[in-house]
Specification:
56% of the residues lie in helices and 21% in strands. By secondary structure, the protein is an alpha+beta fold. It folds into 2 domains: 3-109, Beta Polymerase, domain 2; 112-187. 29% of the residues are buried.
């Protein structure tokens, strides 16, 4: 899918969500485009309730489990983060705001919400051995931390409520490594 058809598919989906009055929040790579230039993505991530999928027969569900559904909308791949997951619900309710994006007002995850979602995904991606996605997520986190300088201690405190202790220890180590990279970059030493 080229970038023009990707944008058009995303706009068509936003229009459909608006017409059906679906409560959703944009997350993932396309949401990152609101905050950071140059992010490349071919899919769309949204936070929404499982019940919303019933109102969207245009979405072809490819797979689904307790926390996620993967669907297609024409050529557009959509990853649905189901709000029955307590972190996804928290980001949906408390770490999002309506922003002007692609010529319309849409609910979009905040910088802090995106970081929380990316941190939450990392331990699973490491266990899966998905090096490419680990790199993308860590780079997204680093970029958001560098440009927006959110309260890292507050983010770590928040994510600790949704993961086990060993995953939290791993996440703290990853965040410390990312912060060291940012410091080296700012100091001009490599």
């Amino acid at each position: 899918m080229n970038s023009d058809s990707l944008i058009q598919s995303v706009q068509n989906l936003f229009m459909l969500l608006e017409q059906r009055q679906i409560d959703y929040v944009l997350a993932g790579g396309i949401a990152l485009l609101y905050y950071v230039e140059g992010r490349n993505t071919q899919d769309l991530d949204v936070l929404m309730a499982l019940s919303a999928l019933d109102k969207l027969p245009e979405l072809k569900i490819i797979s689904q489990d307790l926390n996620f559904a993967r669907a297609s909308f024409g050529e557009l791949q959509i990853d649905v983060l189901l709000t029955q997951n307590s972190l996804f619900r928290q980001v949906h309710q408390n770490f999002s705001q309506v922003q002007r994006f692609l010529d319309r007002d849409i609910p979009i995850a905040s910088v802090e919400g995106l970081i929380l979602l990316k941190l939450y995904a990392l331990p699973s991606l490491y266990r899966q051995g998905n090096f490419a996605r680990v790199g993308i997520n860590e780079n997204d986190i680093a970029t958001l931390l560098h440009y927006y300088q959110p309260n890292v201690a507050a983010l770590l405190s928040e994510i600790s409520k949704y993961i086990n202790e060993s995953d939290f220890t791993e996440i703290k180590g990853i965040v410390a490594e990312i912060q060291n990279r940012i410091k080296r970059f700012k100091d001009g030493s490599g």
